[in-house]
Amino acid sequence: xxxxxxxxxxxxxxLNFNNLISQEQTAxxxxxxxxxxxxxxxxxxxxxxxxxxNNEDWKMISSGDNHSIAIKEDGSLWAWGFNxxxxxxxxxxxxxxxxxKIGNQKDWAxxxxxxxxxxxxxxxxxIYAWGNNEYGQLGLGNQNxxxxxxxxxxxxxxxxxxxxxxxxxxxxxxGTLWAWGDNEFGQLGxxxxxxxxxxxxxGNENWSSISAGFQHSLAIKNNGTxxxxxxxxxxxxxxxxxxxxxxxxxxxxxNSNWKAISAGAWHSMALxxxxxxxxWGDNEFGQxGNKSTGIxxxxxxxxxxxxxxxxxxxTWNSYAIDQDGYLWIWGDNEFxxxxxxSTDFYSTEPLKINSSNNWNFxxxxxxxxxxxxxxxxxxxxxxxxxxxxxxxxxxxxxxxxESKFTNVDGEYKFENLNEGSYTxxxxxxxxxxxxxxxxxxxxxxxxxxxxxxxxxVAKTFDLSGKITENGNPLNNITVSNGSSIxxxxxxxxxxxxxxxxxSYTxxxxxxxxxxxxxNRVVNLDENKNDLDFVATKTTExxxxxxxxxxxxxxxxxxxxxxxELKATTDDNGYYEFxxxxxGSYTxxxxxxxxxxxxxxxxxxxxxxxENANFEATEIKLSVENxxxxxxxxxxxxxxxxxxxxxxxxxNDELKIYDVNGLLIFEKKLSRNYKNxxxxxxxxxxxxxxxxIELQKGNEFIYNNLLIER
Length: 709
Known about the structure:
Layout: H1 14-17, E1 25-31, E2 46-51, E3 58-63, E4 67-72, E5 77-81, E6 96-101, E7 108-113, E8 117-122, E9 127-131, E10 146-151, E11 158-163, E12 167-172, E13 177-181, E14 196-201, E15 207-212, E16 216-221, E17 226-230, E18 246-251, E19 258-263, E20 267-272, E21 277-281, E22 296-301, E23 308-313, E24 317-322, E25 327-332, E26 346-352, E27 359-364, E28 368-374, E29 378-387, E30 390-391, E31 396-398, E32 403-405, E33 411-418, E34 420-427, E35 431-434, E36 438-442, E37 451-455, E38 460-469, E39 472-473, E40 478-480, E41 485-487, E42 493-500, E43 502-508, E44 513-516, E45 520-524, E46 533-537, E47 541-550, E48 553-554, E49 559-561, E50 566-568, E51 574-581, E52 583-589, E53 594-597, E54 601-605, E55 614-618, H2 623-627, E56 631-638, E57 641-648, E58 653-658, E59 663-668, E60 673-681, E61 688-696, E62 699-707
Parallel strand pairs: 29-37, 38-46, 47-55
Antiparallel strand pairs: 1-2, 1-28, 3-4, 4-5, 5-6, 7-8, 8-9, 9-10, 11-12, 12-13, 13-14, 15-16, 16-17, 17-18, 19-20, 20-21, 21-22, 23-24, 24-25, 25-26, 27-28, 29-30, 29-33, 31-32, 31-34, 34-36, 35-37, 38-39, 38-42, 40-41, 40-43, 43-45, 44-46, 47-48, 47-51, 49-50, 49-52, 52-54, 53-55, 56-57, ...
């Protein structure tokens, strides 16, 4: 059963305070809100963190029993919640459910909230107190409550202060320890059990950190040793003997590697130099975090893989922020202190609250929690890509992390980027850009990161030559450059125009002649106009023959083309072309029922060829393939210009062959097509049937193209 009438103290891990002075922060609260201590303008409890106002200028916070107090970045002091003893510091005893400014001063540096009193230090090192003073915890030399910040003495060398339930601890710049207020359990550490109404120096040692609990105190010396004094009924001092109260500091264990402490109501926590977390004392609701509810007499290292940056003890709860910025909570959940990390009555192990990893500080009251989050600012980068004052669509823009594409107006935008350096680069094979890239050190929105595009005009070249026989020009001789064809005119001249820089193999392919040379290879980087051939009429004839088989069985009735003539396979799959002149021949099976390997056989005929064989595979079409939904041709072309409607992806390859298997068009797709048009213009194309091939990975899709004029 919970102990009643317990007024809880807030402890601030002094080690972490310096991290709070420059980062913009938001304040969040949850838990009990009976007196408006959440500061959200209601008196309704919250079971998940809720932001206090919309400000990002909170510097530090401290939670009392049922009130909260904070300092903003401008040094102003604010408070809200329970105000029965004047602990809100605004000269009244009226509760407030939103932050109210205390005075007009902006020189507050540090504040700590006790159960119902507060003590704060100004920038000049002076110290002030207000609120409940039943036991002299304000240090003003009396026991009168005060509803406005009131200066304690005249000294200006105070460094930090910690308010317990009804007592106060403070350190001066010289490392000396001072205490005042309630002393029923020896929590002041002066060897007596009498309360003190003015600051009293405790010993002569030098201390580095202090923490005031409900009725006990903890401190770390400069040598890293841990000390405790006051109440130890629940082993909250970490000392195994709880039969007496400790009225002077007593060393806890023998370790000398302690760096931060937090004294709660009846349990305590600490961090060592390895950033490991230790807990001890009361464990009625699992606040020790070791998956049990058994009391812990001495410090126990919590068995987690986390490394920690701040620890905070509540009344029946524990809170810690790990070095990744995640907030963990365990213990009691009667007023939803676990922040929806669990709906159970309590948790005996740390639970992570939500997915935020920018928590910086947490402070707990008796049943409410206030926490600070670092403001993670994000920014946008936007701009435009234009050519001749017109925006260009689908230009890829990379920010060194990801890419975006410009819209129809040439605009692009990267959103929610963290502060940092970014290199903005437009990427295209069709344009050059000015500038080529832009480097940004992003600390604000950038909306004018523009680029001027200039179309790349690819260099092209012409290639030509002449074919003669006995010095006379030969007309209508077909010449291939490896990807397209041309024919000689009446002067025996052929020409290929506007060819890209590349390597080409030039081959005359008309039958009935042999050529010297048989072909010419040229690396085209300038116009070439002397690629000539000498033709010799041939009278000797030869034959080409072969088999068409499926699974080693001959296929009858397969039509075979040699580029000019056709033959049909017999019962054994055999075909033959006889009386052929010397020349180049393309042997192609032309049925739609099968696919063949190879698709075509190219033969430079100078002797009989008897093994031009094909292996057939029957095509088993689905309904979708029959409908040819992936590639359609319309309308039938006029003058070599036509439109394909495609369902295809980027990098799919589109090729067009003539019936002889000669490749006359090839294009690797540079974008995705979803039932979209692709216009194609083929120059100098003859009437006839052509085969369109779309290669999608390992899949090949075909359609026919009919040229009629």
